[in-house]
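It is worth pausing here to work through a concrete case rather than discussing structure prediction in the abstract. The textbook approach is simple: state the sequence, then state the predicted structure, then interpret. We follow exactly that order.
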Amino acid sequence: MTGKMTRKKIILIVFLILAVASAGIFVGRWTINAIGAEVEGYEELKVFSEALSLVRKNYVEDVKPRDLVYGAVKGMLASLDPHSAFMTPEQYKEMQVDTRGEFGGLGIQIGIKDGMLTVIAPIEDTPAYKAGIKAGDKIIKINKEFTKDMSLHDAVSKMRGAPSTSVKITIIREGWKETKDFVIVREIIKVKSVRSKLLEDGVGYIKINQFQEQTASDLSDNVETLMKENISSIVLDLRNNPGGLLNSAVDVSSQFLPQGKLVVFIRDKKGEKVEYKSKNNSAISIVPMVVLVNQGSASASEIVAGALKDWNRAVIIGTQTFGKGSVQSVIPLSDNSALRLTTARYYTPKGVSIQTTGITPDIVVKPEVKDGEKGHAAIREKDLERHLKNGEEETEDKPSEPEEVVPLEVEEKDDIQLQRAIDLLKTWKIFKELPKAS
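Step two, the predicted structure:
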């Protein structure tokens, strides 16, 4: 199975759902029927062949040729943008399972910040969450092995394992004077991609955690349940959603847009354009709605938010989104390993690339970090090492923006972004019902 996906450094960070999973940074999947092994720059390949031969003949210990080749390919992909990577056969197989929303592991989102393996957020009701792992925690060791210079995929592999087995991770947290060991028992992590509930005054609340194969179907079921409650408006919460499958993002957008509307289009290196349009009309496509976004809304989340904003279908509330406007294609190799390669940029219906810039909310509402509470720095695509550029907005002369600090956790009663969305929809309803002036 192959795929097209858009799965997160002065700061290096890539959203990985560690259940442990790697689908979060991807959007979509495609099939490549044939891969031409075109040999360009063969002079440089001669250097590689010479180096390979010298290592095999002279290295102090025996090394498997496959390990040498895999190491070279990993290094080659690591020299590209932060979303391109090499996957071993085992990692490729895990990735295919990940997109179905069920994985074995701990239940955390991780990245690499300032050269250290860092917890982005624990997933609610998972072993890591219950063990007390917090956003911003630095993972120093995994089973006594130091994580310095460890790749994200290697960290994922080490924290994954069979249910009921344990893994020990060594954590350092801001304010701690020394590290602490956490022994966590692995479980099968089932990430419920959609949940919903009825709020006050007929406002329906829908939270999408990740864009998986079943997300559009799960959304449809949740919408059907809410419609039976006679909802008058909807809040679609895409905050801290790291993305997922492109087709899922299109199918989700289709439920909120009239049929035949452009959701997103992509352009590859050759300039070839592929458009994705909404497919079916839905009863929910005319209900007033607000979309909540923040710095953790990435990739597929930005596709949905961008489409609904460009078509004036929803009011976007929150903070600037992550800004991942690139498309990754998963291309299998002959030995069942694979490349996750950035092959295109995607654009909103109005032709805007959000790479590094993100989606700007219609109404900016920043969460507050109260006195005595801890927060963490907001990290976006523009903070990643080797990120793809997006025009002239990234110049050396441009002054740096002040660091945005966001709270680690927010209770619903203190969620000012959600409360602003509810107030807006209530006001919308009031104005709609006002009698016309005579």
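Step three, interpretation. The longest helix spans residues 416-433. DSSP finds nine helices and 23 strands in the chain.
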